[in-house]
Write a structure and sequence with these properties.
single chain, 342 residues, HIT family, subunit A, three-stranded mixed beta sheet, binds 5,6-dihydrouridine-5'-monophosphate, binds zinc ion
Length: 342
């Protein structure tokens, strides 16, 4: 079956993906060039995230040494938005939305990216995520904290300085809402988390596991849509990042680092992706159904420049992939643990 066109189910969202493994055999005559080993300077006077520099809004960054968090100067969500709804019949609905947007500089070094940082400095990033989740989530008008990283110009990242973002708002956004519903249905039925059971099965099967340490597993999900899509999942069924111990945070940082080194090594390029955490909402309810995790959605397909386009059939009907999740996992697993830049 796995050799023939088939559909795979995503139990976390209820979505489907079309897999066409036979097409992966079709000839490729396009480019396969490798990326560059070019180094950026460790400080760039024109960068709005480097220590001491002035940002677009006129504020000055401190001379930070590790991580630095500031409120986004162009926040998509604002704290003091007046609350209200507007409806005109069934067809026109509007709701106000309140929130807070932040930017996190992962390092003062302009030239580094996560896979080039030490595990201790990445642990510092995980510490910031934990603190921000707790602090932002403590506001009554913040019910969901979305932590994410856009990396690479193809993903719309505006600056190579290593950084991520947080958008925290009143409403549970679309993707986490789907996952919450599916995880709740599963938990109500079995009293175990969906991802806990999924992880146990995957660890036994091994074929989609890319990397694991004492507390986290990196895998290509069975239902992956993007060619090299992965997830980092904690072995313990924690619903949110505030429940992670120091040791677990270090293991999380290690998994994040090992995965992104493999990603960079795949096409010998600084591998672009959008990645982010999904975890329990901060709505003061208990959420035993939630099993926190991190998704990586990278667009590259075949080389440093050839990306997958989500167009045509995928836009109008269902996402589709050629290379199977198992093949992608094997390729990532077999890559060196040493970054290609050395
Ligand atoms: P991205 O690279 O993922 O776009 O994130 C950069 C964010 O930084 C972006 O949301 C913000 C942009 O609004 N920003 C500032 O807050 N201050 C600046 O001086 C420039 C960019
Ligand atoms: Zn910089």
């Amino acid at each position: 079956m796995e050799e023939h066109p088939h559909r795979r189910y995503n139990p976390l969202t209820g979505d489907w993906v079309l897999v066409s493994p036979h097409r992966a055999k079709r000839p490729w005559q396009g480019q396969v060039e490798k990326g560059s080993k070019e180094r950026r300077p460790s400080y760039d006077e024109g960068c709005y995230l480097c220590p001491g520099n002035t940002r677009a809004g006129g504020k000055q960054n401190p001379d930070y040494q590790q991580t630095y968090v500031f409120t986004n100067d162009f926040s998509a969500l604002l704290k003091d938005t007046p609350q209200g709804n507007y409806e005109e019949g069934e067809l026109f609905k509007t709701e106000s939305e309140q929130g807070i947007c932040k930017v996190i500089c992962f390092s003062p070094r302009h030239d580094l990216t996560i896979p080039e940082m030490s595990v201790e400095s990445i642990k510092g990033v995980v510490d910031v995520w934990q603190k921000e989740y707790e602090e932002l989530g403590a506001n009554d008008f913040i019910n969901y904290v979305q932590i994410f990283e856009n990396k690479g110009a193809v993903m719309g990242c505006s600056n190579p300085h290593p950084h991520g973002q947080i958008w925290a708002g009143r409403t549970l956004p679309v993707e986490p809402a789907k996952e919450q519903q599916k995880q709740k249905e599963y938990y109500d039925k079995y009293k175990r988390t969906l991802l806990g059971d999924y992880l146990r099965a995957e660890v036994e099967k091994k074929e989609r596991v890319v990397y694991s340490n004492d507390h986290f597993v990196v895998l290509v999900p069975y239902w992956a849509v993007w060619p090299f899509e992965t997830m980092i999942i904690p072995c313990r069924a924690v619903s949110s990042i505030d429940q992670l111990s120091d040791e677990e945070k270090l293991a999380f940082a290690d998994a994040y680092r090992e995965l992104t080194i493999k990603y960079d090594n795949l096409f010998e390029t600084s591998f672009p992706y959008s990645a982010g955490l999904h975890q329990a909402p901060t709505d003061q309810e208990k959420h035993p159904e939630w099993h926190m995790h991190m998704h990586f959605y990278p667009p590259l397909l075949r080389s440093a420049t050839v990306k997958k386009f989500m167009v045509g059939y995928e836009m109008l009907a269902t996402p589709q992939r050629d290379i199977t999740a198992e093949t992608s996992a094997a390729r990532l697993r077999d890559l060196s643990k040493v970054h290609y830049k050395g």
